[in-house]
Structures are given as C-alpha cells and as structure tokens.
Amino acid sequence: MEKNKINLWYRILSTVVVIFFLSNCSLTKQPIREENKSVPESYSNSTDSINSATIKWKDYFNDQHLIALIDTALKNNQELNITLQEIEIAKNEAKARKGEYLPFINLNSGAGLEKEGRYTRHGAVDENLDIKHNTAFPEPLTDYMFGISASWELDVWKKLRNAKKSAVTKYLSSIEGKNFMVTNLIAEIANSYYELMALDNLIGIIEKNIEIQSNAFNVVKQQKNAAKVTQLAVNRFEAQLLNTQNLQYEIKQKIIETENKLVFLTGKFSRNIPRNSTSFNSIAVDSVFSGIPSQLLENRPDIRQAELNLLASKLDVKAAKANFYPSFRITAATGFQSFKPTFLLNPESMLYNLTGDLIAPLINRNAIKAAYNTANAQQIQAVYNYEQSILNAYVEVLNQLSKIDNYSNSYKTKSKEVEILIQSVTIANNLFNSARADYAEVLLTQREALEAKIELIEIKMKQLNGKVNIYKALGGGWN
After folding, report:
1. How far apart, in whole angstroms, are the C-alpha atoms of residue 108 and residue 59?
2. Is the omega angle on the peptide bond into residue 274 within 30 degrees of 0, that is, cis?
3. Over the stretch 205-227, which tens digit does the pLDDT of each residue have?
4. Average pLDDT of the residues of the chain
5. What DSSP character marks residue 1?
6. What CATH code is carried by the domain that includes residue 134?
C-alpha cells in the first residue's frame, strides 16, 4: 500500500515537472530579429580607406582660439559633466550585478529578553523543566548569540551572470554615449565660433556700406540744392541709408546671443571670445577623406553605443527567460547561542544549519511572462535603433560631402559676382555724378552689391559648417 502511494506521488510529481518544462518551452519560443549590418561599399565609387575621422581634433581645427574654447568646454561643460556621473552610476550598477551571483556572508550577533506568561503552554513547560538537576529556567529568560550566516543562489541558468554582463555592456554603452556627446560638443562650438566670425564680417560689410551710402546721400543733397535732382532722390537715398543702418542692430543682437551660447557651452561666465575675424574668408576647407561606409561602424560612437545596447538587450532576454526555470539556493549558518554569557562559548552552545531550496514558478506567472515579453520587445526595438543609427550616419556623410562640394563651387561663383557688383557701384556713382545715369540705378546697384556681399559671407559660413559637420558625421573628435 505504501509503495503504491509512493509510486502515485512520483507519477504526479513527474507529470508536473514535464508540464512545467513544456509550458516554459512554449512560452520562451519568441522570434528573435537579427540586426542588419550591411552598408554600401563606397560613398561615390571610391574605395579609398583614408578617413579624416582619424585626425585629432586639435590638428583638424588649426585655429588656436577655437582650440582654446574646445579645451575649456571639455573641462567645464555641465552637460558633459552630468554624463560623466551617469557613467559612474552605470559602473556601480555593474559592480552590484557582479556581486549578486557570489555568496553572501553576514556576521550576526544579538541579545534578547523573554518572559513567558505562566498560564501558557510555554510558560507551563518552563515552570516544570530544569536546565540541569535542581536548576530551573531563569526568569526572565535572556538570550545571547553570535555567528555567521551565508546564502548563495546557484546560477544554474546563468540568469545572474547574464544580468551582470548586461550591466557591464550598458556601462560601456554609457562611455560611448559620452564620446558621442564630445563629438557633438566640439562640432557645436566650432560652428558657433565660425558663426561669430561671420557675424563680425557682416558688421564690417554693413559699416563700409553705410559709409559709401552716406557719401552718396551727401552728394545727392548737394545736387538737390543745385536743383539737379528732386527731393524724391534725396528721400530714396536717405531711406536706403536708414535701412542699411538698421541691419546692424539685428546682427549685433545675433553676436551677443552667439557669444552667450559659447559662454554656456564652455561653462564660463566670461563673454570675451577671442577670434581673428579678418581671416574668415581665407579659412581653407581642405580636402576631406571620407573613407568607406563600413568604417562608420567603428568610428561613430553613436553606432557603437547602439550596438552595445543591442547586445545588452539580448542578455536581458536570456536573464528574463531564466526566470521561468527553478532557482536553487543554499543557506547555512553557524554560531553560539546561550541564555548566559558564561555558557556562550561552551561547545554545547554551538548551533549550525544547512538548507537547500528549489523554487520554481508554477501558477500565476503573469509578472514573469510580462517581463520576458517586455525584454523581447526591447531587444527588437534595439535592433531597429541600431539599424537606424547606421543609416542615419551614412546619410549624414553623403549630405555633408555634397554640401562641401556645392558650397565651395557656390563661393567661387558668388565671389566673382561680388567683384563685378563692386565695380558696378563705382561705375554707377560716376555716371550719376556726370548726369549719365538715373539715381535709381545707383540705389539698385548699391543694394545688389550689399546683398551679394552678405550672401558671400553666408555661403562661406555654410562651407565651414560642412567642414565641421563632415568631421562629426565621420565620427571624428572624440578620440
């Protein structure tokens, strides 16, 4: 009869175990989407692997004033310093995860006092029980103990190890995030610095045009007094002079805002931004070597960050999957316990225990299922994010390469236009003074020359933006 009962319980337990593992197998068969790392072989049929991203930023930007600004920002920028603390947080998280699969050992000690009611079960037993012959239980009963205890979860399914690896990977990802921020910070400072130089040149152009238009206005007033022109000509010349004078106020405001932006980026309150704006138009945009697209996978910190996040998400899926399986834990303790301090170190006061536990989720596993499904969704999300970062980097490089080429050609063309219009202003003034041209032609020529000069500065600014942004797009600046 007893043997039949044992066989029955054995069959029931075996059935439960089989059902448990079969249900887990069906639950954890989630589709895993693999990432696509393929990129085109070249940007424009060139397989030259020389890449400007390998150039140190101090060599790429050879302006000492700009280098000083970037150096200051890398030390003082608040957002960068916040990111550095996030790296420390991720590092500590990795340390915490590492400790979870190692044994926990604790030192325990304590003292207590207990008084049982006489008319209770324990009180009645203590009343009639001697510790030794003719030695009754002390009342109240004191209790002293000290010892050590240990617990260890056996990482059979590598749940804890995968969680630790995921935390370490996220820590490495945070470092790449910092590198990407450094790249963006350098580019933002360089673009703002060049913008400030461009604005200085715009102010210089406007001031020269104000001087030219003021002289022309004085000539027209003299001609009006000599009855050579009407008041309409005087008003038109004066209106154009006022319009040009008004332009400088907007530019001055932009200068202040750009200086303050650099103050914010460098983390210092000084608005003194040294620069040599007279050399703005002569800043060379050297040949940029884009290398091949596959180098983006190594050079771009944001792509490496996305790749590490993807790896961490895969480890998180494995750790979440292990929650469906049984966990094994060993606990042990040893020490001494006695109601009198004098008996505490007596061998008879020694105690110890050793326990092994096996715990497996059987019913109501909704939380585990939800965590596992979430980990799978985040893994697929990380795949898309990784692929998007590669595509985005490739498109950025193409755009900036085209930008450098087109605006270099545009700058050459616009420079010729400016030269012609400057000559036209002189010609128009001479013709007007000799009464061989209408004042409207003079005004139109002056306005066209001013607009062309402003456009030339803007084109140069876009050209320099291309120089900065292609360096960032290729992944330069962080190393």
Report:
1. 61
2. no
3. 999 889 888 888 888 888 888 87
4. 85
5. -
6. 2.20.200
Write out pLDDT tens, residues 338-354.
877 877 788 888 888 88
Q: Comparing C-alpha atoms, which of 214, 228, 272, 281 is closest to residue 463?
A: 281
Whose CA is closest to 100, among 152, 38, 55? Answer: 152
The full DSSP string for 371-438 is HHHHHHHHHHHHHHHHHHHHHHHHHHHHHHHHHHHHHHHHHHHHHHHHHHHHHHHHHHHHHHHTTSS-
| Cβ neighbourhood burial of 229 (10 Å; 0-12, 13-18, 19+) | buried
Are 306 and 389 spatial neighbours (Cβ–Cβ below 8 Å)?
Answer: yes
Give which of 378, 370, 301 is closest to 33, Cα–Cα: 378
Question: CA 439, CA 441: separation in Å to the nearest integer?
Answer: 5
CA distance 413 to 387: 39
pTM over 0.70: yes
For the chain, what is the domain count? 2
Quick one: which of 207, 147, 114 has its CA closest to 335? 147
Q: Facing residues of 108 across strands? A: 147
DSSP string, 277-309: GGGGGG---PPP-B--GGGHHHH-HHHHHHHHH
Write out 128-155 in H/E/C secondary structure: CCEEECCEECCCCEEEEEEEEEEEEEEC
Q: Report the distance separating Cα 197 and Cα 63, nearest Å.
A: 12
Assess whether 396 and 436 both reside in one domain: yes
CA-CA-CA-CA torsion for 471, 472, 474, 477, nearest 10 degrees? 80
**141, HSE (Cβ side, Cα atoms, 13 Å):** 16
What is the distance between the alpha carbons of residues 276 and 274, in angstroms, rounded to a whole number?
7
Sequence-distant (6+) residues with CB within 8 A of 276 are: 63, 65, 197
Residue among 318, 360, 376, 283 at smallest CA distance from 60? 283
Residue where a domain terminates, one of 310, 344, 359: 359
Phi, psi at 144, each rounded to 5°: -125, 140
21 in a domain, yes or no? no
